[in-house]
Amino acid sequence: MWKKWKNLPLWAKIIAGMVAGIIWGLLAVIFEWTVFNQQWVKPFGTIFLNMLQMIAVPLIFVSLVKGMAGLTDIGKLSRIGLKTLGFFMASTVVAITVGLLIVNIMKPGHAFPDSRRAEMQEKYADPAGEKGTIAEQVTPDAPLDFLVEIVPQNVVDAASDNRNILQVIFFAILFGIAIALLPHEKVKVVKGFFDGMSEIIMKIVKIIMKIAPLGVFALLGTLIVEFTGDDIAESLDLFASLGLYMITTILGYIFMIFAVYPFVLKLFTPLTYRGFYKIISSVQMIAFSTSSSAATLPFSMNVVERDLGVSKTISSFVLPIGTTINMDGTSLYQAVGAVFIAQVFGFDLTIAQQLTIVLTATLASIGAPGIPGGGVVMLVIILTSVGLPAEGMAMLLALDRPLDMLRTVVNVTGDCTASTIIAKSENELVYPPVKEEPA
Ligand code: ASP
């Protein structure tokens, strides 16, 4: 039995963990094992999440420095940089446009019952207030504030908080460029150090991956227990009345996953979309279970390099940056959410307001941290930019988690697609990859 389990591929183990977690969660709700779950199951999910977050800063720093330092050709570096940013911007704008089109066609907010509206506003006034204050802290005051925020005053300080990942990336890129610019003789020791560090960190990632099935089991089980709480009937009621909004958002995600990404993959690479999704399915499952693209990063880097044959140079540049600034699922969700709230409150958004949504959702998805619920916090910025009541967000909070899980899948799929296409354009995609000896 143990031998059989050991020989299963990682994605199969993760699916087994997910299914077992869901079954466990349901049983725990039915038989009221919530306290047991809290004390004996939840900690394993937290440990798994912590381990992933623990490795994020070293992984990003070391792999970016190594990737940059390996580039002897600065022209190539700026070319990859431009392509990456161009692709991210384009895919984000496409995602928002898809969201706006779908929500304007489906008009989920118009189906909202009046009585329910008032009740919900009252009931969720508080949580929205809380998120509102967090959002106020991250709301940029001036248009260039988001650029200012990227440059840390203190590197150690930046590295001590996973929310400042963009600042770490900024320093790592600068550090890497400096190595690339200096004569090899002067920096060869440092380069060797980073090569060794990179090996060590990848090994740690592999070790963390081994406990992924247990981690997703505990995460999903606990999610079910906490989400359903003591009030199954009420959460079901809430789901039913907001179902159309969820369907609208999910349709947008489906369009991105089954139309947009396959289209660009077909256009630029030799991969079939089936082949591509088969390979990245384990990454998508981790994204789904953790709801965090930052936590998924170690997995995506590993899979993209090992199974898709993307070179280390490309993956270590595109993926860490993509994880933080390229969130197609999040921007789509924010666009749908904002228009939905406008519809619920009976506002008709003008074209100019919808364009403002495109702009702010692009910036907000760049600013959103790749953590569970990161996108919701930034939604307040969009609502205020078009003059919508921030309380409207209250309604979306209750259903955020399932949508968050799905949009994280879209986010990481976008990053994997970007790295594959950019690798292909740089002749750095070796597909099918040459397998290395198992470690
Ligand atoms: N959870 C998402 C992510 O990590 C961010 C969001 O809340 O939209 O990609």
Overall morphology: globular
CATH topology: Proton glutamate symport protein
Tally of contiguous helical segments: 21
Terminal CA distance: 23 Å
Bound molecules: aspartic acid
When the domains are counted, the total is: 1
Order of helices and strands: HHHHHHHHHHHHHHHHHHHHH
Give the overall pLDDT as a whole number: 83
Structure description:
This protein has a single domain, classed as Proton glutamate symport protein. The protein is built from 21 helices and no strands. The chain has helices spanning 2-7, 10-30, 34-69, 74-106, 114-123, 125-138, 145-150, 155-159, 165-181, 184-210, 212-228, 232-241, 243-268, 273-290, 293-306, 312-325, 328-344, 351-367, 374-385, 393-397, 400-425. Bound molecules: aspartic acid. Aspartic acid binds at residues 291-293, 327, 330, 368, 370-375, 404, 407-408, 411.
